[in-house]
Amino acid sequence: MIVKSKICFLRMVVLFAALPACAHNTQPLTWQQRRLEQPTEAELQWERSGRVMIYEGMTDREVERALDKHFNRVESMMFINTVITDDEGNPLKDPESGEVMIEDDGCK
User: Fold this and answer.
1) How far is CA 43 from CA 34, 38, 47, 48, 56, in A?
2) What is the three-class DSSP state of 53?
3) How many CB atoms lie within 10 A of CB 83?
4) Would you call 93 helix, strand, or coil by DSSP?
5) Which of 32, 30, 28, 84 is nearest to 53 (CA)?
6) Domain extents in the chain
7) Residue 83 in 3-state DSSP?
8) CA 61 to chain centre
9) What is the pLDDT of residue 108?
């Protein structure tokens, strides 16, 4: 119960601080993308101390790239509400609701 409460709290923090996703690499990196791709030494030390960063709302392509490129840091990464994309990298939308489709990670 306590772990679930902490996870929910962390999700709220991530949601509150999240910035719009960048489109076609013309926008600056969001804080999550920067944190994932270009962590500071302090952030890497934070990971080495056993902490996990929760990344929310990233695309399936970003997740796959991170898992391949930063395999040595996988134990410090958790991805939730990952956006499913089509072959061009655009978010897929549910045909009935029109909402962006996300992977079911059980964190609802």
Assistant:
1) 11, 9, 6, 9, 18
2) strand
3) 20
4) strand
5) 32
6) 46-108
7) strand
8) 11
9) 60
Q: CA–CA separation, 15 vs 105, rounded Å?
A: 16
Per-residue pLDDT tens, the chain, 108 aa: give them. Answer: 555 555 544 455 444 444 444 344 566 889 999 999 999 999 999 999 999 999 999 999 999 999 999 999 999 999 999 999 999 999 999 999 999 999 987 766
pLDDT recorded at residue 107: 61
Concatenate the DSSP letters of all residues of 16-34 into one string: HH--PPPSTT-SPPPHHHH
Long-range contacts of 36-39 (CB under 8 A, 24+ apart): 36/62, 36/66, 36/70, 36/77, 37/66, 37/69, 39/73
Burial class (CB in 10 A: 0-12, 13-18, 19+), 73: middle
Which amino acid type is present at position 87? Answer: D
Within the chain, where are the H helices? 2-17, 31-37, 41-48, 60-69
- The pLDDT assigned to 16 comes to 45
